[in-house]
Design brief:
The chain is of the alpha+beta class. The chain is built from 2 helices and 4 strands; from the N terminus they run E-H-E-E-H-E. Helix 1 packs antiparallel against helix 2.
């Protein structure tokens, strides 16, 4: 399933800046960055639950915001892209 992860971490303190880096690193492990605080992740249910658990352990619920969007449309209708960024097609052929 395609999961969109978005977050807004308060960076007014040194601890907040550390939380931001840890959240970003967790997201980078599981997906691709499409905007500064937005990631696309192609995950199965177990991977999604692990990512959710890891991110919830990092954020401060009183100061930060974390959102997950499950994209359920048919694959071809999920994402429309405009502009210069082109995401990786994980189902396409791998060219080395």
């Amino acid at each position: 399933m395609l999961i969109i992860v978005t977050y807004d971490v308060s960076t007014e303190t040194a601890e907040g800046r550390r939380r931001l880096r840890r959240v970003a690193k967790n997201c980078e492990r599981m997906g691709q960055r499409v905007q500064k605080s937005v990631f696309e992740c192609e995950l199965d249910q177990i991977q999604f639950e692990a990512l959710e658990r890891d991110l919830l352990a990092e954020i401060d619920l009183a100061e930060d915001n974390l959102r997950f969007y499950r994209i359920t449309e048919p694959r071809g209708l999920r994402v429309k892209q405009y502009g210069t960024f082109r995401s990786t097609d994980f189902d396409g052929p791998l060219v080395i």
